[in-house]
Specification:
Radius of gyration of chain A: 17 Å
Shape of chain A: globular
CATH class of one domain in chain A: Alpha Beta
CATH architecture of one domain in chain A: Alpha-Beta Complex
Structural class of chain A: alpha/beta
Distance between the termini of chain A: 15 Å
Strand content of chain A: 15-25%
Strand order of the largest sheet of chain A: 7-2-8-1-9
Oligomer: homodimer
CATH superfamily of one domain in chain A: ComB-like
């Protein structure tokens, strides 16, 4: 094993953290795994739906498209605009809405303000591999990245292109676990892991300091959503983007490094 | 005084931190003071030159323009590209180069990779008031912002649109002093002040963790520059942009709040 690790340390893949979709053009997505991060709430909802047996999640960029596609495949159209269920839809972006009874065996067609938009941008930039990450599937994401051996781009969806702390904290959580296995050359990754290590002991207690917390809790009363979205490994599944949809990767290796 | 502070707290100006020039379009610069921050090294050099008696600093976006303007006014053309003295120029972007003997009474025409570019972007977006900030003139910047009573945009120049920690740390230092007098609604400001408070006791000791430190010190051996750029109030002057040039504001109030 010593030799394997020695070899690895000589050719570690790189890891970068992109703090806003408006900065995505600065990063080379070829030969990399791009992790879409939208902690509140798109990527937590995607993990929840797939963990509860959804066949797939189709991310789309508009409400009419969500309705049209869901009708053609007998799926469930859902989405959010500015934190609320999007006009014209019956289902929103709450991870708790997608129970096994409701979503099992069905396809979710989802449109959100930030997360699905970033995913589309990654596709436009020819990302090699796209997965989605959130605290509920943290370990699955880290295991996949370790096993892949590819360079990593942690893409924070933010809020309408602005930096947010919850996506940064998740990026930091990934870096905290991968640090020994990757080469980090960017200040955004250093900052992210530092912020995570300061708050990891009580993420839910820290949440009231987040701008988005007030948007969700004060205006929409979604405290249960927030708690789920900050619970590590509450929905252990690996969403991988293939042929226009996110599916649970049944081959996702359990942690090859035994962490 | 109690009444004055009560009135102030009811109508505190807002403060936002913009982490990259590529995010500047997200912020409203009208009726605000925009602080250009390029710690390594443009805004530290501007503070150094003006504190040492330069008549003004003219920021320009190209080397030919720097040469042309400096010739016409018997000024000193200077600039940096990728951390080194720009090709075609004799003077660079080192704050230690601009001693009183050299720069006193003269005009510096300066072009840099990040800082002067951000200033031009702020002009293009019709910023109300533009000043430049760095650790060597931290107190002057804070005093001016407190006295102005306007909203504040802390603009980090970064490195070629990427986030960097040294500009973020300076933004955090400003927020640390202004926090009670402004309204903060953005996660980037929360993160910046948190990072600053963790590192403020030994900024120079923290420097080797910065990506840019290695760019400057390992490649160009500029450790003395770094130390100057991280020394609070080493060049106490307030550079204000007026009519195409940065000048020392002789009316800059000494701290009106007695901090």
């Amino acid at each position: 094993m010593a030799n394997l690790f020695d070899e690895m340390s000589q050719s570690k893949p790189s890891l970068h953290t992109c703090l806003s979709p408006a900065l995505l053009h600065l990063y080379d997505l070829s030969n990399s795994v791009m992790v879409i991060i939208d902690v509140f709430r798109a990527t937590s909802t995607i993990a929840s739906a797939l963990h509860n047996g959804a066949r797939s999640v189709i991310p789309v960029d508009s409400v009419p498209k969500a309705i049209e596609i869901s009708k053609s495949i007998d799926g469930i159209a859902a989405g959010e605009r500015d934190g609320m269920i999007a006009e014209g839809l019956q289902h929103g972006n709450s991870p708790l809405e997608y129970t096994r009874d409701f979503i099992g065996g069905r396809t979710l067609v989802l449109t959100t303000t930030n997360g699905t938009r970033l995913l589309q941008m990654a596709l436009d930039r020819h990302a090699d591999t796209i997965i989605s990450g959130s605290f509920p599937n943290l370990s699955k994401v880290c295991d996949y990245l370790l096993a892949s051996g590819k360079s990593v781009i942690l893409g924070c969806a933010g809020w309408k292109d602005r930096f947010n702390l919850e996506d940064t904290l998740f990026a930091g959580a990934v870096i905290d676990r991968l640090e020994q296995h990757v080469t980090i050359h960017c200040d955004s990754s250093r900052m992210a892991v530092d912020q995570y290590r300061r708050q990891q002991a009580d993420l839910i207690g820290f949440a009231p300091q987040l701008t988005h917390y007030h948007r969700l809790v004060n205006r929409f009363g979604l405290i249960k959503d927030i708690e789920f979205c900050l619970t590590v490994d509450a929905a252990p599944v690996l969403p991988v983007y293939r042929d226009g949809r996110l599916v649970a990767d049944v081959h996702a290796a359990d942690n090859p490094f035994g962490k």
